[in-house]
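Practice problem: predict the structure.
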Amino acid sequence: MIPTFSIPNIRLFIAFKVFFNSRFYYPVFTILFLDFGLTVAQFSILNAVWAATIVLAEVPSGALADIIGRKQLLVFATSIMMIEIGIISFVPKTDPDIIFIVFLINRVLSGLAEAAASGADEAIAYDSLAAKGDPGQWGRVLEILMRFQSIGFIIAMSVGAAIYDPNLLEKICRFFGFTLSFSQETTMRFPLYLTFILAICAFITTLRMEDPEPTASDTESAPVRQAFGLTIKAGLWILKTPFALSVILFGMLFDGIIRMTITLSSQYYRMIELPESTFGIIGSVVAMFGLVIPKMAKKIAENHSPSYALWLTTFLTATGLITMSFFWPYAGLIPALITFCTMYFISFFVSFYINQITSSAQRATVLSFKGLAYNISYGVLGVLYALLLKIKKQGLTSEDIENTVFVDTFSGFPITFIVWFFIVLGIYMMWLRKPSSPSQ
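Answer:
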């Protein structure tokens, strides 16, 4: 038995996740699109296209990963990442119509890359651990992964926001004795250039991975024509496995609500009177929690029941969302941090439990079903919230309409969470509360 972190695929898995997810343009994501000349409406359309692409490609890509190999899907994902970042890094800022088309292609490719990587990455790592080491150490792998991802996110948030600001770059250059001038049109591409370098690093990382030796069930599923059959098989397995279905249902509830609040975080920070200059710092602070929460989550998962983990995350999420609704000036940051940091617990617990009970032959497909459920939840909540905003805006003409409507509608998040939590809990108690057999 090889020590966990001596297994090459485990180290490469961690490196891949850091390179693939630590994108330097995240702290300036919205304004980057707008500075390229896109409108807010176009930005919304592009994000909808991105989400739709993931939903359509999520499960088929997972089935392909289980059939043709996880490495091939990860190489494909990083290849697409290089293209999607490359085309917007170097697109000339001339014709607005061309820019929109290029960004539309970028969003489709980005969705394909996310879908291809989702499931295949965890599957290749977990199967490598099961083949060469101790699968009981998966919690330790997740703990270390989240720590490195947090470090990568802190660097990306801090550097990405700094190099986007031409005035700050000029001050830094003067401090080191250089007299250089920058324009916003130049610096807006710097976070993209650095992300493009990370895409190349991610691609090289996936090339060095090796698929674990196929099991008998893997070999039987080798023909690509059986992808549809494998998808149906994994879906039926989830439906027939109460514990797996319960984990995915609760996971999609938590993930959808919290991701929506994270998406709207900049507006929330404005409403609690925090200066915009602190937004990047707050993002880094949230990432720093990722250095300690995974260790706590690992101890909970290994020493307590799944129901204990569920009630803990429920308490944290409900507390955070309810107290955020009061919009306390400055102090409102505390419940926001509670809410956002709960995502680390959810991510750890769901991965820990799903991988524990899923067989190698369909692991990537099952994980893709999880990703599909998450994105459907996020997408539906986004559409419902947009409709709610439209209804609330009717008849309002004040200049502060956006802020007023935002405050009035934010209470919908804790209410929605509580209502749907008890609905899912009711489904679990009435139909799903029975022992699950181990993975087959």
